[in-house]
Amino acid sequence: MKKYVSSYCVIALSQNFEMILHSPEGRDVSWEFLQSEFSEENLMFWIACEELKKDTNQSTNAEKARIIYQNYILIFLLNKVSLDSQVREDIIRSLIDPSSMMYDETQLQIYTLVCRDSFLQFLKSLVYRKHFNSKSQNHINSYKLANSKFFLP
C-alpha cells in the first residue's frame, strides 16, 4: 500500500527545506548527511548558484558561471550534478554570454531532486536526529532555566 503525502505536508517540508538551505547551521548539518550519501555536490551547486545571483559585477559573474560549469556540470566529473543532456547543452550555449540567472532552471531541478529524495532521507537520518535532539534538549534546558520558579529541583 502506497502512502500519499498531503499537499500541506509537502509545503511544510519545502518550507523546512528552505530554512535549512538558508541557515549556515542547517547547511552544515545537511552537508554532513549529503557527504554520507555521496551527493554533497547538489548542495555545493545550489550554494554556488546563490552566490552567482548575488554578484552584480558582469566580469566576475562570467567567471563564476564558468567555474560552476567546470566544477558541477562537465560530463566527465565524478561529482557532477545529475542533469539530462539537453540541460547540459543549454548551459553550454548560455556560457557564450553568461548571466547571474543562467543556472536558475538547473538549480530548480537540483533543488527539486534534493527536496524530493535526499531531504526526506535527511529527516530520517541519524545526523538529523542527533542534531535535532541536542538542539531540543538545549531549548528545554534554556526554557527550564528561564522559568526555573515553575520547576521543582
TrEMBL record:
<dbReference type="InterPro" id="IPR024066">
    <property type="entry name" value="RGS_subdom1/3"/>
</dbReference>
<feature type="domain" description="RGS">
    <location>
        <begin position="16"/>
        <end position="132"/>
    </location>
</feature>
<dbReference type="InterPro" id="IPR036305">
    <property type="entry name" value="RGS_sf"/>
</dbReference>
<dbReference type="InterPro" id="IPR016137">
    <property type="entry name" value="RGS"/>
</dbReference>
<protein>
    <submittedName>
        <fullName>Regulator of G protein signaling 17</fullName>
    </submittedName>
</protein>
<dbReference type="Pfam" id="PF00615">
    <property type="entry name" value="RGS"/>
</dbReference>
<dbReference type="InterPro" id="IPR044926">
    <property type="entry name" value="RGS_subdomain_2"/>
</dbReference>
